[in-house]
Design a protein that fits this description.
symport, two-stranded antiparallel sheet, 2 strands, about 450 residues, mainly alpha, Hydantoin permease, transport, Na/ntran_symport, SNS_sf
């Protein structure tokens, strides 16, 4: 498909493959390869994986259909999508929240991505790095964060088909090749069977309310629903494209990367560090895995490859995070892409500094403490992650389900899904409507009530 010649006109994806790769890239990120393994370790291994898969199919996938349909029907960014489909100022606040989430998460997510850039080099030249010392060294972390944001800016400057689509078509296959190679090496290590059993053999007695909530929160985080990313990418999708089929591919690729992420971590962990607690938390990937790689033949190469994989996964997500506020400024403020991308990108660099500094003990940004909806928050990074990366995302999912399911005629969005997908009728159509109107809102409301402590001690997703 030809791309609009005027850079101020709205770009489109050149192919369904380009859309699938870009949208899957926005879903596949550190949430799959960094966050998913450590949450699995903290929540009972195979039991968490089992619940997570159910949450993806029954909750996250219907919400994914919902966001892409809203985006393509309107042809606009999250704010414009709600406005142009008849939403009043109240509902448009959901779109505003999407733009804010993408900007603020982009700023602190890039700090983690900067760590991966640093670890690529330390693995290649075989310098042992203490994770706690590394993250408390701003003269390393802040420049690495800026470099990562700059790379994201340069890709988004290329536009949808010229930058985002081309980058995704290259990076997603590379990501899969690297992750399959490392997972293959991990599962063939002597003693890996114990890790595979822990990871893939669910102990159903470990399933409780906390595990369900963590799995649902991870499904939202991993599938990129509630961010406005899929509304924005859907707005670049031609009418003839099959949203149902594309969404299935996106969900399948995202889930496959998450499952392979676990296969990289747990077999190697159990084989090479027997007795090591798999619930090492967020430091699992950065603290434990380099020691695992050191014990592998060619460990430096595999370690560098792994952190390159993490960086690529982060980049496929930050491209779409930057694109959401950029799309808003192009659509609604009539800025050109160059101006919008640079201003948002530089703003994210500035906002990333407090997040980077909040890992330094004794620093002002590390000492910030307050309570948000009954949840104790510590540190600037922690505040950003809970408020924008967790709570706001869940609220957006609820608001979008209520908007399309109740505030508007849901049949209009079902008709949008049916365009290019003639099989979307009968029980499939009715089932999706039922889930968006009833199942998703009820589950999300229960999740929010639990997060704010209605059912006892607050439990973050």
């Amino acid at each position: 498909m030809a791309v609009n010649a005027n850079p101020d006109d709205r770009d489109q994806f050149g192919s369904s493959l380009g859309f699938i790769m870009a949208a899957a890239g926005s879903a596949v990120g550190l949430g799959n390869i960094w966050r998913f393994p450590y949450l699995t370790g903290e929540n009972g291994g195979g039991a968490f994986v089992f619940v997570y898969l159910i949450c993806v199919v029954l909750i996250a996938l219907p919400l994914l259909f919902n966001e892409i349909a809203l985006g393509r029907k309107s042809g606009k960014n999250p704010i414009g999508a709600i406005r142009d489909t008849g939403g009043n100022k109240f509902w448009q606040l959901t779109g505003v929240l999407c733009v804010m989430v993408c900007f603020f998460v982009f700023s602190y997510y890039s700090v983690i991505a900067g760590w991966t850039v640093g670890y690529i080099f330390t693995e290649i030249i075989n310098i042992p790095v203490d994770f706690e010392v590394f993250v408390e060294t701003p003269e390393y972390v802040i420049p690495l964060t800026f470099v990562f944001i700059l790379v994201t800016i340069l890709i988004v400057l290329g536009g949808v088909s010229g930058g985002i689509e081309k980058a995704a078509k290259f990076m997603m296959p590379v990501l899969f090749i690297i992750i399959i190679f490392i997972a293959g090496r991990s599962v063939t290590l002597e003693g890996a069977e114990a890790g595979i059993q822990y990871y893939l053999n669910p102990d159903f007695s470990k399933i409780n309310g906390t595990v369900v909530l963590q799995a649902l929160g991870q499904a939202f985080f991993s599938m990129s629903v509630g961010w406005g990313l899929m509304i924005t990418f859907g707005s670049y999708l031609p009418k003839r494209s099959n949203i149902i089929q594309s969404s299935g591919w996106i969900a399948g690729m995202d889930t496959a990367v998450a499952l392979l992420g676990g296969l990289m971590v747990f077999p190697a962990l159990f084989a090479l560090l027997p007795g090591k607690d798999p619930s090492a938390g967020p430091a699992l990937v950065f603290d434990v895995l380099p020691r695992v790689f050191d014990q592998m033949p060619g460990g430096n190469f595999i370690g560098a490859l792994f952190f390159l994989l993490l960086m690529v996964a982060a980049l496929t997500s930050t491209i779409s995070m930057l694109e959401v506020p950029v799309a808003y400024l192009i659509d609604d403020r009539k800025w050109n892409r160059k101006k919008a991308t640079w201003i948002v990108g530089i703003g994210a660099m500035i906002m990333s500094v407090p997040s980077a500094l909040s890992n330094i003990e004794g620093n002002f940004f590390a000492e910030i403490e307050f309570t948000f909806l009954s949840n104790p928050i510590r540190g600037f990074f922690g505040a950003m992650d809970f408020i924008f990366g967790t709570f706001a995302v869940i609220v957006i999912c609820l608001m979008l389900a209520l908007y399309t399911g109740w505030a508007r005629k849901i049949s209009d969005f079902a008709d949008e899904l049916a365009l290019g997908a003639p099989g979307f009728k009968g029980p499939f159509r009715s089932g999706w409507i039922f889930f968006i109107r009833w199942v998703c809102p009820i589950v999300i409301i229960l999740l929010i009530l639990n997060m704010v402590g209605i059912f006892g001690a607050p439990q973050a997703a």
